[in-house]
Design brief:
This protein is an alpha+beta fold. It is 22% helix and 31% strand. Strands 1, 2, 3, 4, 5, 6, 7, 8, 9 and 10 form a ten-stranded mixed sheet that branches. The relative contact order is 0.19. It comes from Faecalibacillus faecis. Formation of pseudouridine at positions 38, 39 and 40 in the anticodon stem and loop of transfer RNAs.
Length: 244
Amino acid sequence: MNRIKCIVSYDGSKFHGFQVQNKLRTVQGEIQKAIHNICKDEEIVIHASGRTDAKVHGRKQVFHFDTKRDMPEKQWKRAINHFLPNDIYILDSFLVDDDFHSRYSATKKEYHYLLSMNEYSPFETNYIYQYGKSLDIKAMKEAAKIFIGEHNFASFCAIDPYGNTIRTLYHLDIIEKNGIVTFKLIGNGFRRYMVRHIVGGLIQVGAHRIDKAKLEELLESKGEKKCLFKAKPQGLYLHEVFYE
């Protein structure tokens, strides 16, 4: 068997998330259909570094799959792209060792969230959250400091009684240029909705609806108190996945 690693970008606007769902259009479903056209006698299942939700985009998502088919590693990129729809594109393909796993071998992930404080744009609505009002960037940057380091993020992710909610956030940068605010988060892993809840909380601080102390109180409660603010999915991008 050969293990193939691929780096893929996709526009999440017209997908019901990454993971296969019955009768719904998903990124995984479209990629597996494309690979089936190449490996007709095999049931190929791809394994991604993580799932993205409906309307969330991927810039350098990573997946792998095993196949009996022999092909030069770079030819996989061309072959899969030939059968993919125009909102998914394989950026690169590699032949990797059997011990590589897209999810379990990952050491860091980087997410970006884009928000516009400018007037509403119908052309950007699927790609940048159209907030349309000014935010206090300085207050958000100050509040963002509380998330750096290892924390129990149970208050800032989807409820999962069986999942480990302790994660380490290495960077949380907030950059504003021409009315577009970019939140950049790098961590050793992210639970479902974690980025959107963190960004949602920071937006509330920027709008002066809550303060830094309130966010700190939520974080320190370790799930006893939940962050009720969740940023919309359209502005979220899985930017890159890192490996040793």
